[in-house]
Amino acid sequence: MRLRFWFVAFLLVFPTVLLAHGVSSSDQAILDEGGLLAYINVGAKHMLTGYDHLLFLAGVIFYLNGFKDIIRFITVFTVGHSITLIGATYLGIRADEHLIDAVIALSVLYKGFENLGGFENLLKIKSPNLLFMVFTFGLIHGFGLSTRLQSFEVGKSQFLAKIVCFNIGVELGQVLALIPIVFLITRWKSKSSYAAFYKAANYYLVIAGIGLFVYQLYGYFQGH
Predict the structure, then answer these.
(1) What is the rounded CA–CA span in Å between residue 155 and residue 39?
(2) Which whole number is the average pLDDT over 16-20?
(3) Burial label, 79 (beta-carbon count in 10 A; 0-12, 13-18, 19+)
(4) Closest Cα to residue 6, out of 194, 209, 180, 155?
(5) Interval 56-79 mean pLDDT
(6) Quick one: pLDDT at residue 22?
């Protein structure tokens, strides 16, 4: 019952988290008034409210068995998003934030679809190599994080150090966010209701992915 309570609570809180995701004037004030630690703080905060990143990672964890597997795949994802976060920000490579977030939304949809056996059951093909796809989506997620960071006024002083500190904050926030997710999913695996939970949660990922995709496209066309 407790596990069900926390899952339902997550579904109820999700819309609030969705509104919290993004660049705020308060974050800019923190960066203006603080030093490098402020970038770690804002990076962690961004990941903790990064509903799209966390939904994708939750979908990945559903598919894995054992702590070693979780560490391996999360490390690959981390390497991927660190490459594009640091590289794209340093080089000033940008994309429209709504479009990149729309692609990230598709990664959430993809993971739920894969977990439900969509490739085998509906498309009649073998699903792509998961480790490769996690790395690829890591690159895309990192580009989205870079786009967010570039929305701030960073300045030229200690530019690379600020980017790296933001990335460190993202990693810390990711770890903090994954602890309850891993705990919830691994604990539920021993329950008789896990099969129903697995199916419902991954259908939710599919629906959330579609909803976020439409939401981001709407934001893009509203701004153009």
Answers:
(1) 13
(2) 42
(3) middle
(4) 180
(5) 90
(6) 53
Residue type at position 163: I
pLDDT at 1 over 90: no
**CA torsion, ordered 149, 176, 29, 98, to nearest 10 deg:** 40
Residues of the chain with pLDDT > 90, as a percent, come to: 67
In sequence order, what DSSP letters do the residues of 153-185 get, joined into one string? ---STTHHHHHHHHHHHHHHHHHHHHHHHHHHH
Residue 106 exposed, middle or buried by CB count within 10 Å (0-12, 13-18, 19+): buried
Q: How far is CA 137 from CA 4, 133, 199, in A?
A: 29, 6, 23
pTM: 0.86
Write out the H or E segment, with its range, that includes residue 5. Answer: helix 2-20
